[in-house]
Amino acid sequence: MSSNLHPMLNVAIKAARAAGAIINRAALDVESVRISQKQVNDFVTEVDHAAEQAIIDTLLTAYPGHGIWAEETGRERGAKHSDFVWIIDPLDGTTNFIHGFPVYCVSIALAVHGKIEHAVVYDPTRNDLFTATRGRGAFLNDRRIRVSKRTQLKDSLVSTGFPFRPGDQFKTYLQMLADVMPRTAGVRRPGAAALDLAYVAAGFTEAFFETGLNPWDVAAGSLLVTEAGGLVGNFTGESDFLEQKECLAGTPRIYGQLVPVLGKYSKFASAGDKAAVRQGLTSEAGETPDTPDTQAEAAEGDAAAPTNPARDDAPF
Predict the structure, then answer these.
(1) Where is the composition biased (Low complexity) (predicted)?
(2) pLDDT band at 198 (very low <50, low <70, confident <90, very high)
């Protein structure tokens, strides 16, 4: 750990490395790891729990007055009403891990008064440590990183995540993917959102998009991207995305080119855009297109949704 880093970031690095050591030991005999299922295709292992425990213990030993918001234990630990909240994903990419596919990471972020101030994403398989502090830049293994210099979507490599939970809108996602893929140089699906965001920050990819994500999936990675000169928001380009279950990140130019493509698939899209998406889905499936009456009903429902979700004081 560097003496030049903020003390809170140093503690987060210590916690991430402790979790990474647990994950690496378990990876030596991954077939013996006990696995349970939270819901269809959503797994948790004893390694997730052990890694999370190590992270929380490290953080609360240093900062007992801080709050905790973790994937597996929620807000059970830490101070309940602190302005300092650690947002933790102890093993992002659990499905990859249990198959021995070496793309997973530890993600730790600190939110202060609702804004992410420090971030660590640690890849234990490669010993890659991504760190950021607001206003101080983003780093990979002590080397300053910046987003890619590519400016055209057609030259860009874009990463994503597939829907995999019950209730995910798989058909809509396929239509979204069909809109994006022909416009790019390639689309990849590594399987760990925190690493996807870290790779955008490092310039390995030009953009990332996914729906259904939770705050612990994107909190740390989002700061890496913005500190590396990129942009993060929801599909309509609003910067307040953390709890909206949709995330788009990229270089400024590529982000700007993807918002018009992905915006119509956002939960905050206009009624007209939503109707167009539904029209495309029903036409593709050979179903009867929406009638004016059903479109009017949909528009009426959409009118109840917030038209501008951005806010600076989003509570945790």
Answers:
(1) 293-309
(2) very high
